[in-house]
Design brief:
283 residues, alpha/beta, 434 Repressor (Amino-terminal Domain), Endonuclease, Chain A, six-stranded mixed β-sheet, 12 helices, 6 strands, 12% strand, Cro/C1-type_HTH, DUF5753, DNA binding
Length: 283
């Protein structure tokens, strides 16, 4: 089977974690390949996510690497065994890979936290709000492309209908609540939907008010996905030119600190819901 030309972010993450284990063991790719009866290229392809790897092979590598973190190894084996098409695969080759990576990240997460300062969390946006966001895209998107993105983004909400939805805590700056994307009617409906979502069993919405005097260093939306073990947490940062995922120790530490600040400065759930309602009534 030829190597994958475009591994998903999750496939690349599995490879990156196996590389960390190899490097911690002080082995080169050539040495690791020899342990499997292969060569350097085999290990390089696995670690880049270009080749799939079975759970048995992951455990075989772990033995050679003398890796002893049982929960991490179990999680990596589970990642290796993920098979079958999911709903976002319908859009592969139609939407950019980053869209699919976000949907998969949300779907696989044990917990989710987001931080927004200008727009509301994508997974909690209404169709009209999404349409307004993409309607202002530069360059202008064709109408059918806008509708495709609207459909995809709103489908992401289905994770909350699962029997075991991930917990989701959304930190939203008051500025984002007051942005009138699409006009007053669209914004009012969006805020109403946000208030309703804040009462879903697995969802918490907390507002960082204008009165807060502590600087929050997050001009771009941040999605933090908790993994089955902390080593597999992922931070996803979005921007006008696309997004990127971080799984390095330094990157994760930075965003854990950022969310600690947000947690310290945001209003409680009830006070946040009341502020959203007050802003909604002003429109």
């Amino acid at each position: 089977m030829p190597p994958r030309s475009n591994p998903t972010a999750r496939q690349a993450r599995l490879g990156a974690e196996l590389r960390k284990l190899r490097e911690a063991a002080g082995l080169s790719t050539t040495e690791a390949g020899a342990l499997l009866g292969g060569n350097q290229a085999q290990i390089s392809h696995i670690e880049a996510g270009r080749w799939g790897v079975s759970a048995a092979r992951v455990r075989q590598l772990a033995v050679h690497y003398e890796a002893s973190h049982g929960e991490l190894l179990d999680a990596l084996c589970a990642m290796a065994e993920e098979r079958g098409k999911q709903w976002w695969d319908e859009y592969r080759g139609v939407l950019a890979p980053g869209f699919l990576d976000v949907a998969e990240l949300e779907y696989r997460a044990a917990s989710l936290r987001s931080l927004q300062t200008v727009t509301l969390p994508g997974i909690l946006q209404t169709e009209d709000y999404v349409r307004a966001i993409y309607g202002g895209h530069i360059p202008v998107l064709p109408a059918d492309e806008v509708e495709l993105r609207v459909e995809f983004r709103t489908r992401r909400q289905q994770i909350f209908a699962r029997a075991d939805p991930p917990s989701f805590e959304a930190f939203i700056h008051e500025a984002a609540l007051r942005m009138r994307f699409g006009g007053g009617k669209v914004t009012r409906a969006q805020l109403s939907h946000l208030r309703a979502a804040s009462e879903w069993p697995s969802v918490k919405v907390r507002v960082i008010p204008f009165a807060n005097e502590e600087f929050i260093e997050a001009t771009q939306p941040v999605l933090y996905a908790g993994g089955p073990v902390s080593e597999l947490d992922t931070a996803r940062v979005s921007g006008a030119l696309g997004g990127h995922s971080l799984g390095t120790d330094a990157g994760l530490k930075k965003y854990r600190t950022l969310f600690a600040v947000a947690d310290r400065t945001a209003l409680g759930v009830k006070a946040s819901r009341q502020l959203i309602h007050d802003i909604e009534k002003e429109l």
